[in-house]
Amino acid sequence: MVGYAFMGAAHSQGWRTVGRVFDLPLNPAMAAVCGRDPAAVRAAAGRLGWAAAETDWRALVARDDVQLVDICTPGASHAEIAIAALEAGKHVLCEKPLANTVAEAEAMVRAAAEARSRGQVAMVGFNYRRTPALALARDMIARGRVGTVRHVRVAYLQDWLVDPGFPLAWRLRRDQAGSGALGDLGAHAVDLAQHLAGEPLVQVTAQTETFTTRRPVPGEGPGVLGEVTVDDAALFGGRLASGALAAFEVSRVAAGRKNALRVEVNGTAGSLAFDLERLNELQFHDHTQDAAEAGFRRILVTEDTHPYLDAWWPPGHGLGYEHTFVHQARDLLRAIADGTDPAPSFEDGLRVQRVLAAVEESAGKNSVLIPVPQT
Amino acid sequence: MVGYAFMGAAHSQGWRTVGRVFDLPLNPAMAAVCGRDPAAVRAAAGRLGWAAAETDWRALVARDDVQLVDICTPGASHAEIAIAALEAGKHVLCEKPLANTVAEAEAMVRAAAEARSRGQVAMVGFNYRRTPALALARDMIARGRVGTVRHVRVAYLQDWLVDPGFPLAWRLRRDQAGSGALGDLGAHAVDLAQHLAGEPLVQVTAQTETFTTRRPVPGEGPGVLGEVTVDDAALFGGRLASGALAAFEVSRVAAGRKNALRVEVNGTAGSLAFDLERLNELQFHDHTQDAAEAGFRRILVTEDTHPYLDAWWPPGHGLGYEHTFVHQARDLLRAIADGTDPAPSFEDGLRVQRVLAAVEESAGKNSVLIPVPQT
Amino acid sequence: MVGYAFMGAAHSQGWRTVGRVFDLPLNPAMAAVCGRDPAAVRAAAGRLGWAAAETDWRALVARDDVQLVDICTPGASHAEIAIAALEAGKHVLCEKPLANTVAEAEAMVRAAAEARSRGQVAMVGFNYRRTPALALARDMIARGRVGTVRHVRVAYLQDWLVDPGFPLAWRLRRDQAGSGALGDLGAHAVDLAQHLAGEPLVQVTAQTETFTTRRPVPGEGPGVLGEVTVDDAALFGGRLASGALAAFEVSRVAAGRKNALRVEVNGTAGSLAFDLERLNELQFHDHTQDAAEAGFRRILVTEDTHPYLDAWWPPGHGLGYEHTFVHQARDLLRAIADGTDPAPSFEDGLRVQRVLAAVEESAGKNSVLIPVPQT
Amino acid sequence: MVGYAFMGAAHSQGWRTVGRVFDLPLNPAMAAVCGRDPAAVRAAAGRLGWAAAETDWRALVARDDVQLVDICTPGASHAEIAIAALEAGKHVLCEKPLANTVAEAEAMVRAAAEARSRGQVAMVGFNYRRTPALALARDMIARGRVGTVRHVRVAYLQDWLVDPGFPLAWRLRRDQAGSGALGDLGAHAVDLAQHLAGEPLVQVTAQTETFTTRRPVPGEGPGVLGEVTVDDAALFGGRLASGALAAFEVSRVAAGRKNALRVEVNGTAGSLAFDLERLNELQFHDHTQDAAEAGFRRILVTEDTHPYLDAWWPPGHGLGYEHTFVHQARDLLRAIADGTDPAPSFEDGLRVQRVLAAVEESAGKNSVLIPVPQT
């Protein structure tokens, strides 16, 4: 694993737990973790449960005892590491967004395609697909429970940038993060919209905004401000291939919304709604029922017949955010063992990247509709 | 009152009740109601409590015992009736949208301005401003409880057009209704956004859609379909004068959403959220509180210190939809008695109309941002 | 109508509105209102829409133009007025609780039985039965949608007595009110439990409590305190005839709960839940569905197929507290016209009174189970 | 660890994870797990991460490499194992309920007291105290945020026994489980009430019920039914030492309620409410605020200033049920290292047991109030 901050800790919890809960065809061993600071990475290895520590990702990639490289670094380094790992014969799990640019993402897709012919797999970490409630939503939509989709709306709202004193962290610098709320939150939003509806966005219109343009530079003295080079918020809309309307809003300045990824799909036969702040619940309206008894129904997604739930606790005993990483690990290990392609693939990641690029293009061109290139 | 269908019944309930609940400087007498079908309008007069019935709105406007004309007809006739009533020296209350075109709305504003110099008032029926929870929201925003506004999002979702067998009623015909979800629901959404934020929208980007393009013609035999000439749904976004982002979605095909007018305002000091399906509640997050105790708070807007509530029931005894019309009547009568201008004015109605026109223009021009003309 | 305070105002709104909304076989005329203070009752008559004012209820009862006497006074006077009105040949609507003692209630039932033989009707004002959501709940239970009832739980929580400075109003004096939260809130709770389940409570165990025992006497100088002679809260449980368990809690000191009448029924085939603070909603869990798609469903009780809703507004346009009085008026007028017995009858009121008496007896005898006498 | 079923799996997840997330003074090693079936316990050891497997708990207790015995068996064996482990010089963590009888619990308390003098600790597994939201609730009550407590109400509702075909598992047999919903769910409910309020229950009145009295015997042929010897549901109420009223309801036949542990505390300065089905949320009403802005506030208990949360994910990234066991492990290890007494102690467990015994006594004596013996 490369990187051991927030994402690295979450992935580690996934790797440590997956074999304790699920029956797996492969037993993952946590070989080595990589980071630039020698002391810090050694401490992280001990705490997170990795057998060894490396300070150069190239050394990690070169290790014989590593068959899978899990990339948890900022987006700017994804392409280089992933391509090198694939070329070194490793399977790759890469955090989202797949890359910071479409060109990088395209190169990664090419590398993954070549690797696939050698039996390697590549997966991108859109972990929210593996929230049981959203996995159930996907199943229900695929089974026709909402009919023809008319509307998809996704808002992903956080509030940690409301405070103008919040420092200029790497997530606020274009060279590191690629974009702001758009790449961080919007990538999830777009992937979920396309995944749930089962069809791609084909055009978008967008607006982006940075409300606080200068912030304190970490490590500098008080009053030293640097320029924020990414968006605080983005508002965009578009069409899915079927003609359904999709509405998106992502923000890091929505006071009181901590991690409010809200998804709603309205179709001709029903509707589904979800809020990550209540992640064990899926709201379902069955429009084929008699209106006198119809209404949005709170499905507590904790039954053993629900996705992933047969291995966990009895009904009503909810899971948390980190379980998405356990499920991601399960599905990736099964795909490796079965020789199948895990989803979401690098192509899925590229598809998201193309939407995000079109969003930025539209925002720069007075919101005019931009077609999203399809492969 | 001209018109006695849904809106006419709701307005009548307002006129009948207002003097029974509120202390008023003026006592309204319900002189006459007007409709085209003589038998039906007489029956409506008896049922709704109007002393007389007319079949020609010109006759109604000409009556000496009428000082106020309340216009509850489809949008296409608003301008003609309102201008005639104002010219005849009557006060006017006109249902929303103010008109079907900007040109009509401008003419109405001119007529209202002239009438104002003669001591007459003109008001447009954006009744949701008078939902106590939204009136409280307006007060709180004006008092700075959310700080500087960053985001306004308004969705107004209904589902009565999901069924493709729903007939081609007047609300689905451009010549009668002007537009579809846009004029009907979007007018409320835009007025509320501007009213709550206390500032106008200055540019918009939009998409509109008609999913079901042909519907059964009422009164015709089975299988006779006519063309739907208005939108089923519209998705638009824009900027308020301050730079805040505003996101709108209106639809009549959102299965399971019956009358879901949801408003959220995020500012630097707090956030407010409202859903018309739970109209006695206002959600408020105070971002200035210690995060350890902060969160969205459900204010049950039934205290006697809340807007309009001193005249109603004890705390917790909720009001309904129709009470907005009682409150509208109260405020209009007080304005007439006081010689002040009631809000929302025809200028407010024109401001909404200009946004809706810009939305339609943007939707017709690949969603490119369209500036909204300001007075 | 006798009494014109809170209940009188609510009933008046019912009488004024019922004929404007519903098609009725009888057209109610609001003949006269009665109260002790001549000036105040005249003002109330004017404001509330009554043609005449009386200061002696005996005079009201004796009026030839009065066919129905609506009793909105404190419980202590219900028996005397109701019996006199019935003996004078009037129909009677009596606010709940039916009386302050079982003996009074029994006398009222006898008077109602005699009057029934003369073609008069008598009804007690358990208005919450006529909340559309609770009327729907009753229909669904009667149709078997929850199967065999196992649990009924009703909490009715308010908070206006949390403040120790709240004065010693009539509702806090045993001689006027009979009891405290028990008679005021508990009467509704018990009636709803028996009405929804369709069977009586047969035994109860109870605890009652008065937390603030002395309060300021209205009209006296500051610091003059009088003894509170009723309960602040009561906790009781019991069995329905079928063996189902029923749990009750009523309180006026539950901070933050304004008018939280919460009802839940759990049966072998499903469950229903309701909260008066969200009175347009009924939660329904269908336990016969596949668990993978089951869950509590929010039925927005605003469809025209729902009880009372055909006469009101389109789906999603909610009603309020006062509409229960319109519906009560409708059903009473229809019963009078049809010559049928309206429900809830005085017998129903007596049944509640017997439960409340058993609750007080149990609370006085160390909570031992007390059988509730059945007729 | 003794036992490796549901509780054993949950505890194992706690032991495996605690050192990966929290900074600990002691590093737990998972020495051995014990169960009666040799093959099954070996498989469990491998899967759950225990170094060795034992088939006799006495052998486990005798192991030199075991310093702490974690008891996850049915209640009937708790006393014997716990006392033996304490006498063998081990620290003990015992699942709730502490025992099946008061006498057993008293013996355990004596053994724990003796062991304490030798530096050993004993803790009972009321894990819900360590749900962050409930830990926050306890802190807030202790800090006076609700003032003087007036009401505590706890309902713990499940529905897995609605189906009469559910088999006669050990939890339905008095000789194994001691009691039914009462000991299983009621133990949590009573512990939380006493813990949150910070004072004991001093008297109770109760009713219990078994709706389905015969169920299929596991391992027997179809149609072989055995007698259910525990309660399906219990309804009880009582007084806390301060005079506050406490209301309890526990059931395994509440259709649609999966794991609905709902707690509400109403005090003179505010109220708190919690539902385990939404375990990351705490509702708080601050009654000292201006009523115009007051209301129940949803605190998303995911801030790093909230209990246990500094070690987990960013705000809004919720935890699940199993995290209570991680937190339990943390607090126990810290107590061992610090030489302090961990809570809840065996005395706390005994206090709960005495309440449950009083509940059963009251239920057997026509619900008469039974005093709860205090130490």
What's the CATH H-level superfamily name of the largest domain in chain A?
Dihydrodipicolinate Reductase, domain 2
Global mean pLDDT of chain A: 96
Spatial ordering of strands, largest sheet of chain A: 15-14-13-12-6-11-10-7-16
Number of domains of chain A: 2
CATH class type of the largest domain in chain A: Alpha Beta
Overall radius of gyration of chain A: 21 Å
Q: Report the major sheet of chain A.
A: 9 strands, mixed
Secondary-structure-based class of chain A equals alpha/beta
Protein name (chains A, B, C, D): Gfo/Idh/MocA family oxidoreductase
Organism (chains A, B, C, D): Streptomyces hazeniae
InterPro entries (chains A, B, C, D): Gfo/Idh/MocA-like_OxRdtase_N, Gfo/Idh/MocA_oxidrdct_glycsds, GFO_IDH_MocA-like_dom, NAD(P)-bd_dom_sf
Keywords (chains A, B, C, D): Oxidoreductase
